[in-house]
Sequence to fold (522 residues):
Amino acid sequence: MTNTAHDRLLIIDFGSQVTQLIARRLRELNVYCEIHPFQAVTDAFLQDFRPRAVILSGGPASVLDDGSPRPPQAVFDLGVPVLGICYGQQVMMQMLGGRVERGDGTAEFGRAYIRPTGEALELLDGWFTADDDREQVWMSHGDHVAALAPGFAAYATSPGAPFAVAADPSRRFYAVQFHPEVHHTPAGSKLYANFVRIAGFKGDWTMAAYRDEAIAKIRAQIGDGRVICGLSGGVDSSVAAVLIHEAIGDQLTCVFVDHGLLRQGEADEVVSMFRDHYNIPLIHADESELFLGELEGVSDPETKRKIIGRLFIDVFQKHADATEGAQFLAQGTLYPDVIESVSFSGGPSVTIKSHHNVGGLPEKMGLKLVEPLRELFKDEVRALGRELGLPDSFIGRHPFPGPGLAIRCPGEITREKLEILRRADAVFIDQIRKHGLYDEIWQAFVAILPVRTVGVMGDGRTYDHACALRAVTSVDGMTADYYPFTHEFLGETATRIINEVKGINRVTYDITSKPPGTIEWE
Ligand code: XMP
Fold:
């Protein structure tokens, strides 16, 4: 738990797929909130956390099942506003003396319309107008509330949820059957704005405030100790490094592990920006020989990732050891990485890909962690980066995975393929920038395919590599859709790549969404 001076809102997670979106909506309102799984929220936790308001999330369980998740009763004795959403509504009604029934033909999934039942409710300020007394919401429930708890009244209704909005305004308890956090509830943000106003939040969670607080916290944590930071050239580790440097100056040393799997010109860019522009002490560990050597002949994606992860740790450790007296390791961990969500199956979720990070490193090296971004979402990190004066061109960069080009080169990695890939990738990105599309796209890159195909150039036959262009839109990398380039754009790009990049004679465009695909090829 953080020790922020701001008023806090507590989101108790019951395992909904969209709990994180509740936090997003609240952060947009400049309200500080944290998500905690229901098992972790004990009476002692509540006393310590002192929330100004509580939200009970949705979840896949049924309150009618034995042992289904509950918040502690104390949540309702804190004297603070409570908002229950979907499962949160049902559990609230059940615990406060109402009744929930199994859905027998009343289940609602997807778009629904609610209408007010008469009396106005502050939570719904701005929802219904004289011309349009219905509002679209997103429902996803099987069970429904059949009898309200004492003190509650219904304020809006839908065909499948007679108590779509129920409330006891005197206690500031609100319970809604739909999901106001999702995009398909268009007035959802207004509901959250009303809720936090009712709770008395000041809306003072801004990036400028965050920056000053974070700097003070880093100084207090580090004292006159030394910090090392693994720099990948990505936005997160860069923002973390600049923030820490602002707090403690040259007590910070950055280690940039160059695994030889970077894009064209990338290593030089990172080194010149940090060393020359920011004057941050930087070790440029050029270890491409080591990485490429160990990857020789390896084609299994997981094996590649494991090798890179292991070497990364070894190399980092070797160079970090050279930084005398380092007691702290800085990481650009973000909030989505630390939310201990309740998984849908009740167990750990399946590993699709083992993501590359420096896990295990701190214990092995006896280092304490500094994670100044662990309360932030990705777009908040970007806002903080701007606040710290990092150039927009840098902050807006597409994400780049830790294992680098290795996972864009399916099958065996060779230096020759990497070089071809770098050149093709540079042309693709150049095309995207020239057409003004870079900022509309979440991530774009080229993958070089492990097949050669026959072509004809001039009067001669070619037998060269095929490549795939990948460009996706996404908000968080969890789901993604392919970017709808025009045919002209695709044609022009293919022509340029084939003309400018020796070694490629065929260009394809990957139009798989995620799921079922993933963004990277491996
Ligand atoms: P996938 O391929 O899983 O990628 O759909 C989702 C997002 O994560 C990035 N990615 C990684 N980032 N280490 C990282 O730091 C990794 O091992 C890794 N694998 C994938 C990917 O680029 C995309 O933005």
About this structure: The chain has 15 helices and 20 strands. Residues 353, 355-356, 399, 401-403, 443, 477, 514, 518-520 surround xanthosine-5'-monophosphate (CB under 6 Å). The two ends are 35 Å apart (CA to CA). Confidence is low (pLDDT under 50) at residues 344-351.
